[in-house]
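User: Could you walk me through two proteins back to back? I'd like the raw sequence and the structure tokens for each, with a short line separating them so I can tell where one ends and the next begins.

Assistant: Of course. Protein one, sequence then structure:
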Amino acid sequence: MSSSLLPLNSSFITTHRPIKARTNQTQGFRVSCNAAPDAHNDNKLILPESQKLILPNVDRRNLLVGLGGLCTAASLTSLPAAMADPITAPDITSICKDASAGIRNKEDAIRTLKCCPPSLGKTIKPFVFPKERTVRMRWPAHNGTKEQVEKYRAAIQAMRDLPDDHPHSFVSQAKIHCAYCNGGYNQVDSGSGFPDVDIQIHNSWLFFPFHRWYLYFYERILGKLINDPTFALPFWKWDEPAGMPIPEMFVPATIDGKPNPLYDVYRNPNHIQERIVDLDYDGQDKDIPDKTQIDCNLSTVYRDLVRNGADTLSFFGGVYVAGDSPVGNSDPSVGSVESGSHTAVHRWVGDTTQPNGEDMGNFYSAGYDPVFYIHHANVDRMWKLWKELGIPGHVEPTEPDWLNASFVFYDENEDLVRVYNKDSVNLNKLKFNYMENSKEVFPWRKSRPARRSKSSQVQSTEVVKTVDQTKFPVRLNKILKVRVKRPAVKRTEAEKETANEVLLIKKIKYDSGNYVKFDVFVNDILKPDQPPTSPCDPEYAGGFAQIPHGNMKSMFMTSSARFGLTELFEDTNTDGEEYATVTLVPRTGCDDLTIGDIKIELVPIPKA
């Protein structure tokens, strides 16, 4: 054995980040090297609680060889996540600082950067599920009754009427997103404490549960303000053609001569009246008919929920645990909905003429637009619909580091409450749900891109380098094409039922102060006389997009993206090809963006 390999009983004296091992109360030290049943169930190193390790900069391969060579190098990539702690929000009223992240032009910022919540001198209480029998039914914003719209306006007006320093005020509620997203809180209470590391609830598996809790309390606060225990939020049903424009109740500046509480002056004026939202918006309006835009939107929703959301991590986003920096963040992957339709709507609504794209175009200011909450209500609904599709692999994360991650909010009684991801998964317990047409087949469910006609394709004669011939990282200041070897070809239907083929764009390093967007196409081999490939076509794998956010100490952040390929290869008649030609097309904010690696993997589908 090499002298560089340290036995487990060696005394490590170091100031490096401590690694807390998950525990097993009845067994001694053991190593589990079983194959993971799915992509997010990492191989776990299990130690007794009393046997915590503090490791210096030891190579993980050497560590496991020192344990007896029980695991192969191929299974080591997830070791840090298996030996960590969940993200734990601190007392938000005592551990908070001004927003400093993702705001390029702070001097001219439209909204305040002082995003800390008011302190009422209260201690944090544990969350208790609501005991009422009534289920709040969220309703489609484009099709609300007169009573629903009037109640909603009255509740928002009541919230606006509160003094700004009240925890239920419109301003205080808007600041929640700013503080959690733009560097307001650190990880002092996460694991053994990381006071110099900020919390970031985007770009990881925290995205969905955080926003669900945010809306949960926001909705209950609004209901209490108008003394209506049945009050429910509307949702912007942009996944249905009739619901794709900004709902009418948000458009007028005044109602009956009085200011409309749902209006926000900082919206893109070109997208307000009679405009169909673009769920793949890249900063430029597309000159296409409304019918085409609607079809493309439905394909985007299908792509977000089915093709690119085929497994837990692809849908929720990458692992994010105590000690991870929002900047490096162990190279996680952003979830399919978050990077797709979610970010597109933020950017499409925000006013691009404002210094930082206020309001919706920047995370620090997004909460000041009432549209933010109905948009995120539909994003939350995407989680529900994704789960209800019943497709193998559509399950929430099961790791303790996800289940036990926690946030702190003011509830409807002005009490500070700590909530956990594990308590966010059951809508029946949370006493809210979404109105759906029981007879409706969701239009996006039938919007898988049409299979490409072979007559429109041609065998490419272009010489394209393989990944092995490409020197990474590669700057994406121009179109990048690369051939990527596939792990398997011509898989049988039975084999496809056991694993999804997934394209990984890894170590995407980008300027977090900018809006960033690039598109990904695979096997685009159309004849020259065919129209250019668009996001409506089967060759379009998806896009990577980010709203400005991050750590101002280092404006550059790192992320990854995942795109499902199983259906794409079928729809482009290229399932038998040994290599896939991957094309990355920069759209905006990519001048300094670099790509660290590109690969294709088979991601196991867990058995039902």
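----
Protein two, same layout:
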Amino acid sequence: MAAINSNQTTPPTNIFVLSSYFRSLSKTPQRLRKRVLATWTPDQELNKMRLRSGADMKRKLTWYDLIALGVGGMLGVGVFVTTGPVARDKSGPAVLVSYVIAGISALFSCLCYTEFSIQIPVAGGAFSYLRVTFGEFVGYFAGANILMEYVLSNAAIARSFTEYLCTTFGQEDPNAWRVEVDGLMEGYNMLDFPAVALIILLTLSLCRSTKESSMLNIVMTIFHVVFFGFIIVAGICYGNTANLIQPKGLAPYGVKGIIDGAAIVYFSYIGYDSVSTMAEEIQNPSKSLPLGIVGSVLIVSVLYCLMALSLCLMVPYNKISSSASFSVAFQNIGWKWAGNIVGAGASLGIVASLLVAMLGQARYLCVIGRARLVPSWFAKVHPTTGTPQNATIFLGFCQASIALFTELSIVLEMISIGTLLVFYLVANALIYHRYAINTNNPPIYTLVFLFLLSSASIGFSISWNFKHQQRWGLPLFGVFMMSITAIFQYLMSSGSIQDRQSREWQVPFMPWPAALSIFLNVFLMATLKKLSYERFGVWACLITLFYLLYGVHSTYQAEEMEMEGDGDRRGGMRELCPNSNGEQPKVDIQVL
């Protein structure tokens, strides 16, 4: 009879859980009003949120670890994945200028990241910065987009590893080590098992120790920079300057092609964002973070430009291979042995960049799990290794699945739009945080300025895409942006001199660097293709739906439980007593 009774009680229990979930869904509007704009203070983010992971991450990294992580994370991505396709199809030999434009935009964005990372030295990166400034939903939306960008870019990088590894062993066909499956759609029919194996090995390494992974990255980065020097010297010394102007000039696709190329090569700079996620594992964040983030961006920008110049000197832009560009370039000038060396060095650089990106993505998911916007299982930090193993393994599985099937060209532009959007939001957040939260200025003034600045940036970008005769909006919107920024700087205070001196490092000449970052990110986003926005729109709908069905209810319940816990400590068992209106307090069911 006991077994019968047990079986009889199970269905009602399941029905009760399901009905409780639907009751929670019926309260979505009320919970949205309470949670969408809910913010945490930096102190809560630093202390209270970190307790949700159980064990702390171990502070073992120094400033030179950060520079090596930043350089290693960016180098393999930009040069070996995007330079060839952009030079051939977008910018021509002027791909060097595309890198300069993207580098300037990245420098402004990294300054915004640096100030935030010093004030809020946690592993959440852009997610944490936006959550404490604009509220829960904006932080979640940015965090979900940066995670998408990480997973897709890592999958793309892993597939590039296979292409360069083929050239290392003398294979002229970049698909030689891939398996073609006839029944699958084109673009998804070349299975890449070496890419999957690489992701699995790096995932296991990152689960073991952050410091050991950092030392491995330093060794690979040193060899990688030496190898870069070989390519730059060989290309400049043995290249032909005639290739810069033949067959159709320095900028065969015009100024628009240069800008379009800049939007795509911007993908090359996502590595510095990984550095900011290391904030909980740095011994001296206030000094190490500025050196690590800004220093790595400057070093990489110089190397990118020299590498792009070297490639275009060796081969005319219309003969550059879209796959394994540098290896094929050396083979075209008769240095087949150098092409094999380039393949080996590029493979090593891609491993380093993939290691850093996978390091950063797991920290993002870990902190989003702390906020209960995704299941708290992802927030757990292993007590022995001090690493977020659950998040690392889950994301490794996701990107291995994508790398197995998906061609590089399918994901590149979608990656760029996610990156540009997040950097745009962080720049807005820095201005609002500096001029509204840290001062007594009315927030409405800062919000109006940000709205006008973004609107003018959109207007300028739309005017740029018109025909030459219809570009009258360029000077109009350009002058308007500079005028409102100058007026805002003159009228709004960012705090007293004593307050500014008492704080840690801050971005100088505000609000100009952040305003320029906003403009450049909007401008580069406007150059992307319609398909990029369609794919991005689908992703935005999916993550918003997840927030409505799970995130808002989970965070609401987590906050309610913590408030009840605080009430227990302050007032004993007051929750068992009736409220002042004679009713029992309401207890919500947590959404699992």
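The two ends are 31 Å apart (CA to CA).

Let me know if you want the two compared in more detail.
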